[in-house]
Amino acid sequence: MxxxxxxSVTPLSLQARVPQIADxxxxxxxxxxxxxxxxxxxxxxxxxxxxxxxxxxxxxxxxGEAAAGRLQRDxxxxxxxxxxxxxxxxxxxxxxxxxxxxxxxxxxxxxxxxLGIPISLAAVYLEIGRRAGLRLExxxxxxxxxVRAPADAARxxxxxxxxxxxxxxxxLSEVDCRHLLREQLGEDVAxxxxxxxxxxxxxxxxxxxxxxxxxxxRMRSFPQARAIADLLLSVDPSALAELRDRGLLxxxxxxxxxxxxxxxxxxxxxxRQEGSDRDASDTAERDGEDAQASESAQIWEHVKALxxxxxxxx
Length: 314
Prior knowledge:
By secondary structure, this protein is of the alpha+beta class. It has helices at 11-30, 37-43, 53-73, 78-89, 107-113, 118-131, 174-185, 201-219, 222-235, 240-252, 256-269, 283-313; strands at 93-94, 115-116, 137-139, 146-149, 161-164, 170-172, 198-199. The strands form 2 sheets. Strands 6-5-4-3-7 form a 5-stranded antiparallel β-sheet. A two-stranded parallel ribbon has the order 1-2.
Protein backbone atom coordinates (compact mmCIF):
# COMPACT_ATOMS: atom_id res chain seq x y z
CA MET A 1 0.00 0.00 0.00
CA UNK A 2 1.32 3.42 -0.87
CA UNK A 3 2.03 5.49 2.27
CA UNK A 4 -0.27 8.42 2.89
CA UNK A 5 1.26 11.75 3.67
CA UNK A 6 0.37 15.40 3.42
CA UNK A 7 1.81 16.95 0.27
CA SER A 8 0.86 20.12 -1.56
CA VAL A 9 3.44 19.53 -4.29
CA THR A 10 2.57 19.55 -7.97
CA PRO A 11 5.19 18.51 -10.52
CA LEU A 12 5.45 21.91 -12.20
CA SER A 13 5.76 23.92 -9.00
CA LEU A 14 8.26 21.42 -7.65
CA GLN A 15 10.50 21.58 -10.71
CA ALA A 16 10.47 25.37 -10.61
CA ARG A 17 11.35 25.30 -6.91
CA VAL A 18 14.34 22.96 -7.12
CA PRO A 19 17.03 25.61 -7.82
CA GLN A 20 15.98 27.57 -4.73
CA ILE A 21 16.02 24.40 -2.59
CA ALA A 22 19.46 23.53 -3.99
CA ASP A 23 20.81 26.98 -3.11
CA UNK A 24 19.48 26.70 0.44
CA UNK A 25 20.90 23.20 0.81
CA UNK A 26 24.35 24.24 -0.41
CA UNK A 27 24.38 27.25 1.92
CA UNK A 28 23.60 24.96 4.85
CA UNK A 29 26.34 22.51 3.85
CA UNK A 30 28.90 25.30 3.49
CA UNK A 31 28.25 26.78 6.93
CA UNK A 32 31.03 26.18 9.47
CA UNK A 33 30.49 23.48 12.08
CA UNK A 34 28.66 20.17 12.00
CA UNK A 35 25.00 21.21 12.20
CA UNK A 36 22.73 18.91 10.19
CA UNK A 37 19.34 20.43 10.85
CA UNK A 38 19.50 23.39 8.39
CA UNK A 39 20.41 21.06 5.50
CA UNK A 40 17.82 18.45 6.53
CA UNK A 41 15.10 21.10 6.74
CA UNK A 42 16.15 22.53 3.38
CA UNK A 43 15.65 19.20 1.63
CA UNK A 44 12.25 18.87 3.33
CA UNK A 45 11.04 21.70 1.08
CA UNK A 46 10.67 19.11 -1.66
CA UNK A 47 7.47 18.05 0.11
CA UNK A 48 6.76 21.12 2.25
CA UNK A 49 7.30 24.22 0.12
CA UNK A 50 6.09 26.66 2.79
CA UNK A 51 8.14 25.11 5.59
CA UNK A 52 9.53 27.62 8.11
CA UNK A 53 12.74 26.18 9.50
CA UNK A 54 13.07 28.62 12.40
CA UNK A 55 10.57 26.99 14.81
CA UNK A 56 12.20 23.58 14.32
CA UNK A 57 15.71 24.95 14.89
CA UNK A 58 14.43 26.67 18.04
CA UNK A 59 12.83 23.42 19.19
CA UNK A 60 16.14 21.60 18.78
CA UNK A 61 17.90 24.32 20.79
CA UNK A 62 15.42 23.94 23.62
CA UNK A 63 15.68 20.16 23.55
CA GLY A 64 19.46 20.48 23.67
CA GLU A 65 19.25 22.82 26.66
CA ALA A 66 16.90 20.42 28.45
CA ALA A 67 19.22 17.49 27.72
CA ALA A 68 22.21 19.47 29.01
CA GLY A 69 20.37 20.14 32.26
CA ARG A 70 19.69 16.43 32.75
CA LEU A 71 23.30 15.55 32.01
CA GLN A 72 24.49 18.01 34.65
CA ARG A 73 22.11 16.65 37.30
CA ASP A 74 22.48 12.94 36.59
CA UNK A 75 25.73 11.72 35.10
CA UNK A 76 26.41 8.06 35.89
CA UNK A 77 26.15 7.43 32.15
CA UNK A 78 25.77 10.41 29.87
CA UNK A 79 24.52 8.27 26.96
CA UNK A 80 21.95 6.52 29.18
CA UNK A 81 20.74 9.92 30.41
CA UNK A 82 20.40 11.25 26.86
CA UNK A 83 18.60 8.06 25.79
CA UNK A 84 16.15 8.37 28.68
CA UNK A 85 15.39 11.96 27.68
CA UNK A 86 14.96 11.28 23.96
CA UNK A 87 13.14 7.95 24.04
CA UNK A 88 11.31 7.93 27.37
CA UNK A 89 10.51 11.60 28.00
CA UNK A 90 10.17 12.87 24.43
CA UNK A 91 8.94 9.57 22.97
CA UNK A 92 11.11 9.28 19.85
CA UNK A 93 11.06 5.82 18.30
CA UNK A 94 11.83 3.94 15.12
CA UNK A 95 8.79 3.55 12.88
CA UNK A 96 8.89 -0.21 12.39
CA UNK A 97 5.25 -0.49 11.28
CA UNK A 98 5.47 2.09 8.46
CA UNK A 99 9.17 2.21 7.72
CA UNK A 100 8.62 3.43 4.14
CA UNK A 101 6.34 6.31 5.09
CA UNK A 102 8.06 9.36 3.53
CA UNK A 103 7.38 11.39 6.66
CA UNK A 104 10.01 9.30 8.44
CA UNK A 105 12.66 10.94 6.26
CA UNK A 106 11.80 14.61 6.79
CA UNK A 107 13.22 16.27 9.91
CA UNK A 108 10.18 18.50 10.46
CA UNK A 109 7.89 15.47 10.48
CA UNK A 110 10.26 13.46 12.67
CA UNK A 111 10.25 16.26 15.25
CA UNK A 112 6.45 16.61 15.05
CA UNK A 113 5.57 12.90 15.09
CA UNK A 114 8.58 11.57 17.05
CA LEU A 115 8.92 8.76 14.49
CA GLY A 116 11.71 8.12 12.03
CA ILE A 117 14.16 5.80 10.30
CA PRO A 118 17.78 5.24 11.40
CA ILE A 119 19.30 8.23 9.61
CA SER A 120 16.60 10.76 10.51
CA LEU A 121 16.62 9.67 14.16
CA ALA A 122 20.42 9.82 14.06
CA ALA A 123 20.16 13.43 12.90
CA VAL A 124 17.95 14.21 15.90
CA TYR A 125 20.33 12.33 18.21
CA LEU A 126 23.36 14.18 16.88
CA GLU A 127 21.72 17.61 16.96
CA ILE A 128 20.36 17.32 20.49
CA GLY A 129 23.35 15.44 21.90
CA ARG A 130 25.86 17.93 20.54
CA ARG A 131 23.82 20.84 21.90
CA ALA A 132 23.90 19.09 25.28
CA GLY A 133 27.69 19.01 25.16
CA LEU A 134 28.31 15.43 24.02
CA ARG A 135 30.92 14.57 21.42
CA LEU A 136 29.08 12.48 18.82
CA GLU A 137 29.71 11.33 15.24
CA UNK A 138 27.62 9.75 12.52
CA UNK A 139 28.59 6.35 11.08
CA UNK A 140 27.55 5.54 7.50
CA UNK A 141 27.08 1.86 8.35
CA UNK A 142 25.62 -0.11 5.42
CA UNK A 143 21.85 -0.36 5.52
CA UNK A 144 21.45 1.12 9.00
CA UNK A 145 22.89 4.47 10.05
CA UNK A 146 24.58 4.54 13.48
CA VAL A 147 26.06 7.07 15.90
CA ARG A 148 29.35 6.93 17.82
CA ALA A 149 30.40 8.53 21.09
CA PRO A 150 34.21 8.51 20.67
CA ALA A 151 36.50 7.36 23.46
CA ASP A 152 37.42 10.07 25.96
CA ALA A 153 41.09 10.96 25.53
CA ALA A 154 41.22 11.97 29.19
CA ARG A 155 40.18 8.44 30.24
CA UNK A 156 42.81 5.91 29.04
CA UNK A 157 40.55 2.86 29.42
CA UNK A 158 37.51 4.36 27.72
CA UNK A 159 36.32 2.97 24.39
CA UNK A 160 34.14 4.13 21.52
CA UNK A 161 30.43 3.59 22.14
CA UNK A 162 28.31 2.62 19.11
CA UNK A 163 24.68 3.74 19.38
CA UNK A 164 21.61 2.67 17.38
CA UNK A 165 19.19 5.65 17.38
CA UNK A 166 16.47 3.58 15.67
CA UNK A 167 16.33 1.10 18.56
CA UNK A 168 16.01 3.57 21.45
CA UNK A 169 19.74 4.31 21.60
CA UNK A 170 20.78 0.67 22.07
CA UNK A 171 24.54 0.23 22.59
CA LEU A 172 26.04 -2.16 20.05
CA SER A 173 29.06 -4.41 20.43
CA GLU A 174 31.16 -5.49 17.46
CA VAL A 175 29.28 -8.79 17.49
CA ASP A 176 26.00 -6.86 17.29
CA CYS A 177 27.33 -4.85 14.35
CA ARG A 178 28.42 -8.00 12.54
CA HIS A 179 24.93 -9.42 12.99
CA LEU A 180 23.40 -6.13 11.81
CA LEU A 181 25.56 -6.16 8.67
CA ARG A 182 24.47 -9.71 7.81
CA GLU A 183 20.86 -8.77 8.49
CA GLN A 184 21.07 -5.80 6.14
CA LEU A 185 23.25 -7.14 3.31
CA GLY A 186 23.35 -10.92 3.61
CA GLU A 187 25.68 -13.60 4.91
CA ASP A 188 28.39 -13.16 2.25
CA VAL A 189 29.29 -9.54 3.03
CA ALA A 190 32.72 -9.16 4.64
CA UNK A 191 32.95 -7.24 7.90
CA UNK A 192 35.54 -4.46 7.90
CA UNK A 193 36.46 -1.85 10.50
CA UNK A 194 36.38 0.71 7.69
CA UNK A 195 32.57 0.45 7.88
CA UNK A 196 32.82 2.51 11.08
CA UNK A 197 34.44 5.53 9.43
CA UNK A 198 33.06 8.87 10.59
CA UNK A 199 30.50 10.30 8.16
CA UNK A 200 30.92 13.93 7.16
CA UNK A 201 27.95 16.24 7.10
CA UNK A 202 27.87 16.07 3.31
CA UNK A 203 27.96 12.27 3.35
CA UNK A 204 25.04 12.19 5.79
CA UNK A 205 22.96 14.55 3.65
CA UNK A 206 23.80 12.58 0.50
CA UNK A 207 22.61 9.39 2.21
CA UNK A 208 19.38 11.13 3.24
CA UNK A 209 18.83 12.18 -0.37
CA UNK A 210 19.65 8.74 -1.81
CA UNK A 211 17.21 7.12 0.64
CA UNK A 212 14.49 9.53 -0.44
CA UNK A 213 15.16 9.01 -4.13
CA UNK A 214 14.87 5.24 -3.79
CA UNK A 215 11.67 5.59 -1.81
CA UNK A 216 10.10 7.91 -4.39
CA UNK A 217 11.07 5.56 -7.21
CA ARG A 218 9.41 2.65 -5.40
CA MET A 219 6.30 4.83 -4.98
CA ARG A 220 6.54 5.83 -8.67
CA SER A 221 6.60 9.47 -7.54
CA PHE A 222 8.90 10.39 -10.42
CA PRO A 223 8.71 14.21 -10.14
CA GLN A 224 9.91 14.07 -6.53
CA ALA A 225 12.57 11.47 -7.37
CA ARG A 226 13.83 13.69 -10.18
CA ALA A 227 13.96 16.68 -7.83
CA ILE A 228 16.05 14.67 -5.39
CA ALA A 229 18.41 13.65 -8.22
CA ASP A 230 18.77 17.36 -9.02
CA LEU A 231 19.72 18.05 -5.39
CA LEU A 232 22.21 15.19 -5.37
CA LEU A 233 23.90 16.62 -8.45
CA SER A 234 23.98 20.05 -6.82
CA VAL A 235 25.78 18.58 -3.82
CA ASP A 236 28.10 16.42 -5.97
CA PRO A 237 28.18 17.41 -9.67
CA SER A 238 30.54 14.48 -10.41
CA ALA A 239 27.98 11.83 -9.34
CA LEU A 240 27.54 10.03 -12.67
CA ALA A 241 24.98 7.59 -11.30
CA GLU A 242 22.73 10.51 -10.39
CA LEU A 243 23.11 11.99 -13.87
CA ARG A 244 22.03 8.64 -15.31
CA ASP A 245 19.12 8.31 -12.88
CA ARG A 246 17.91 11.85 -13.55
CA GLY A 247 17.90 11.09 -17.25
CA LEU A 248 15.94 7.89 -16.75
CA LEU A 249 13.45 9.67 -14.51
CA UNK A 250 12.97 12.37 -17.14
CA UNK A 251 12.37 9.57 -19.67
CA UNK A 252 9.64 8.11 -17.42
CA UNK A 253 8.07 11.57 -17.23
CA UNK A 254 8.24 11.89 -21.04
CA UNK A 255 10.54 14.91 -20.83
CA UNK A 256 12.49 13.49 -23.72
CA UNK A 257 14.79 16.44 -24.43
CA UNK A 258 16.01 16.54 -20.82
CA UNK A 259 16.38 12.76 -20.75
CA UNK A 260 18.45 12.81 -23.94
CA UNK A 261 20.73 15.55 -22.59
CA UNK A 262 21.45 13.71 -19.34
CA UNK A 263 21.90 10.24 -20.83
CA UNK A 264 24.20 11.50 -23.61
CA UNK A 265 26.28 13.29 -20.97
CA UNK A 266 26.35 10.13 -18.85
CA UNK A 267 27.66 8.01 -21.75
CA UNK A 268 30.21 10.67 -22.66
CA UNK A 269 31.57 10.98 -19.11
CA UNK A 270 31.44 7.34 -18.09
CA UNK A 271 34.89 5.70 -17.89
CA ARG A 272 35.66 3.64 -20.98
CA GLN A 273 36.18 -0.10 -20.68
CA GLU A 274 39.63 -0.99 -21.92
CA GLY A 275 41.31 -4.31 -22.56
CA SER A 276 42.87 -5.95 -19.54
CA ASP A 277 45.69 -8.42 -18.96
CA ARG A 278 44.51 -9.29 -15.45
CA ASP A 279 44.46 -12.93 -14.39
CA ALA A 280 41.42 -14.74 -15.70
CA SER A 281 40.53 -15.80 -12.15
CA ASP A 282 39.60 -12.22 -11.29
CA THR A 283 35.98 -13.00 -12.09
CA ALA A 284 34.36 -10.53 -9.69
CA GLU A 285 36.00 -7.54 -11.35
CA ARG A 286 35.28 -8.89 -14.83
CA ASP A 287 31.66 -9.50 -13.88
CA GLY A 288 31.42 -5.90 -12.73
CA GLU A 289 32.82 -4.70 -16.03
CA ASP A 290 30.37 -6.92 -17.93
CA ALA A 291 27.47 -5.47 -15.94
CA GLN A 292 28.66 -1.94 -16.67
CA ALA A 293 28.98 -2.73 -20.37
CA SER A 294 25.47 -4.19 -20.40
CA GLU A 295 24.10 -1.09 -18.68
CA SER A 296 25.89 1.16 -21.17
CA ALA A 297 24.33 -0.78 -24.02
CA GLN A 298 20.88 -0.34 -22.52
CA ILE A 299 21.44 3.40 -22.00
CA TRP A 300 22.68 3.68 -25.60
CA GLU A 301 19.45 2.07 -26.81
CA HIS A 302 17.48 4.64 -24.81
CA VAL A 303 19.57 7.43 -26.33
CA LYS A 304 18.94 6.23 -29.88
CA ALA A 305 15.19 6.05 -29.23
CA LEU A 306 15.22 9.51 -27.65
CA UNK A 307 17.12 11.01 -30.58
CA UNK A 308 14.42 9.73 -32.91
CA UNK A 309 11.67 11.15 -30.68
CA UNK A 310 13.32 14.54 -30.23
CA UNK A 311 14.09 14.80 -33.97
CA UNK A 312 10.41 14.16 -34.63
CA UNK A 313 9.47 17.22 -32.55
CA UNK A 314 11.71 19.56 -34.58
